[in-house]
Specification:
The chain is an alpha+beta fold and 289 residues long. It is built from 6 helices and 9 strands. The protein has a 5-stranded antiparallel β-sheet with strand order 6-3-2-1-9, with no helix packed on it. It has a 4-stranded antiparallel β-sheet with strand order 5-4-7-8. The longest helix is centred in the middle third of the chain and has 36 residues.
Amino acid sequence: MDDDEDHIAFAAEYALGTLDADERAQAETMMSVDQDFTAIVRAWEYRLGVLNQMVGAVEPRPELWERIQAAAGLAEPQQPIVLPAPPPPPPPPPEQVIAPATPVADNSVVLLSSQARRWRGVARLTSALAAALVAMIGLELFAPDLLPDALRPKPRTRVVEVKTPAPTPVPSAQYVALLQGQGGMPAFILTVDGATKTFTVRKIGASSPEPGKSYELWLISDKLPRPRSLGIIGSGDFTTRPVLASYDTDVINNATYAVTIEQAGGSPDGVPHSAPVFAGRLIQTVPPA
């Protein structure tokens, strides 16, 4: 039996009241957190309620309630009936054949016989109700089309979401340029992603510019009429910008990248105002896939 059928049977037993204390507490905990399980329990309570209406009420005899009170300690237990001892039979006359005695039915025997018949009737009624319930559960699980419309379970639709795994990213070409001055000491490392054309400047040896000044990165190519500003280099260790996306790949790969010292915030007119202090060209470090 799969998990759904286990849940349905568990909910039916809860609605029928046949679970022990631990199982009933477990079912109530599941109802507080699982709306689907709660709906199944409510459906069973409705079906069993309809079945209960089909069975007529049976009024127990007054003696049954007195016995329940006595068993629960709510009334004094009935004293057992003590019958007087029968007198001893007279001695038989000599050579007289003793006929077997006829048993005398007393009130206690009649009462016990009546109670036994009554309990047998209750047992037969309970067995019939249990058999009807078992038959209904069997039809519910295996042949619901045979049930009346009022007792037929409503179909449930389960939506299964199938997630397609994300495609494995394809590594793109990577380029790097070492921007250094005349002394040969590297000041910045420039890396460019071949797919996104995003560049990252890593400060490694350059000192901070003078107060009121900023480092500005330029792209210099013989295919462009003048140097193009790529923005100022931030004060942190890394500066990343996507501004190369508007340039052709051939221009990006064959250009010279230079750093000048401009006023704070960069050149105001898009033209460098000092000679480059650091420069370098890109080389490919990772080929495209």
